[in-house]
Automatic annotation (TrEMBL):
It comes from Carlito syrichta. This is Thioredoxin-related transmembrane protein 2. It is a single-pass type I membrane protein. Residues 36-231 form the Thioredoxin domain. CDD domains: TMX2 (cd02962). Keywords: Membrane, Signal, Transmembrane, Transmembrane helix. Residues 241-250 have a biased composition (Low complexity). Monomer. Homodimer; disulfide-linked. Occurs in both reduced and oxidized monomeric form. Oxidative conditions increase homodimerization. Interacts with CANX. Interacts with ATP2A2. PROSITE patterns: THIOREDOXIN_2 (PS51352). Endoplasmic reticulum and mitochondria-associated protein that probably functions as a regulator of cellular redox state and thereby regulates protein post-translational modification, protein folding and mitochondrial activity. Indirectly regulates neuronal proliferation, migration, and organization in the developing brain. It is found in: Mitochondrion membrane. One of its GO terms (biological process) is brain development. Residues 233-258 are annotated as: Disordered. Gene3D superfamilies: Glutaredoxin.
Length: 258
């Protein structure tokens, strides 16, 4: 079925495709696009081309050209999203229970500085990232298990609040593979983050599994230490469990927008 659907769509669009090819403008654009790919990839034509690759190979795309091609591909997909739906399917947004506070560009700094006795684990995510959507139920489950008075979980959409990504040095470029990013804050300051970033600004490969998060962030010890704050009689209010729905977001935005 996955093979037949694109074929049927192609056959159905043949009459319109023939009229489209008959126009010189579109035909010339298609030829120029193909010529760019051939010149960049076909030796010896590519040997005299400039490149910004670290290995100096002129017969392969550098990072700037890859970003341009990905941007143009995204534009084409947005313009033809109905037909692309036949071939692509994004995972659904997580709508289950969680103990997570959602930040915007103004509230994240205020909340981290409000009470420095509280330890925060904050996920920097973007709704368009498949990796972030796959990690969402895992992160929600961790918040249900470990959230307490002195240990809180938060999320901020850096795809929407780009100044937050700049402030906390989390790149939203798909090439860097930094999404999602988990940062541990203690005393209002960053203590550690995963994935780590190398000297080239790219994320070091790391699997976002429940076991890895518990081990790397030492959640069991953090949880036991945070519970002592509650037993000591601190007046930090503990959040109640939230089952997010599109109509219960305080600032009027739906969970999907978040």
């Amino acid at each position: 079925m996955a093979v037949l659907a694109p074929i049927i769509a192609l056959i159905y669009s043949v009459p319109r495709l023939s009229r489209w090819l008959a126009r010189p403008y579109y035909l010339l654009s298609a030829l120029l696009s193909a010529a760019f790919l051939l010149v960049r990839k076909l030796p010896p034509l590519c040997h005299g081309l400039p490149t910004q690759r670290e290995d100096g190979n002129p017969c392969d795309f550098d990072w700037r050209e890859v970003e341009i091609l990905m941007f143009l591909s995204a534009i084409v997909m947005m313009k033809n999203r109905r037909s692309m739906f036949l071939m692509t399917c994004k995972p659904p947004l997580y709508m289950g229970p969680e103990y997570i506070k959602y930040f915007n560009d103004k509230t994240i700094d205020e909340e981290l500085e409000r009470d420095k006795r509280v330890t925060w684990i904050v996920e920097f995510f973007a709704n368009w990232s498949n990796d972030c959507q796959s990690f969402a139920p895992i992160y929600a489950d961790l918040s249900l298990k470990y959230n307490c008075t002195g240990l809180n979980f938060g999320k901020v959409d850096v795809g929407r609040y780009t100044d937050v990504s700049t402030r906390y040095k989390v790149s939203t470029s798909p090439l860097t593979k930094q999404l999602p990013t988990l940062i541990l804050f203690q005393g209002g300051k960053e203590v550690m983050r995963r994935p780590q970033i190398d000297k080239k600004g790219r994320a070091v490969s790391w699997t976002f599994s429940e076991e890895n998060v518990i081990r790397e962030f030492n959640l069991n010890e953090l949880y036991q230490r945070a519970k002592k704050i509650s037993k000591a009689g601190d007046s930090i209010p503990e959040e109640q469990p939230v089952v997010p729905t599109p109509t219960t977001v305080p600032d009027g935005e739906s969970k999907k927008d978040k």
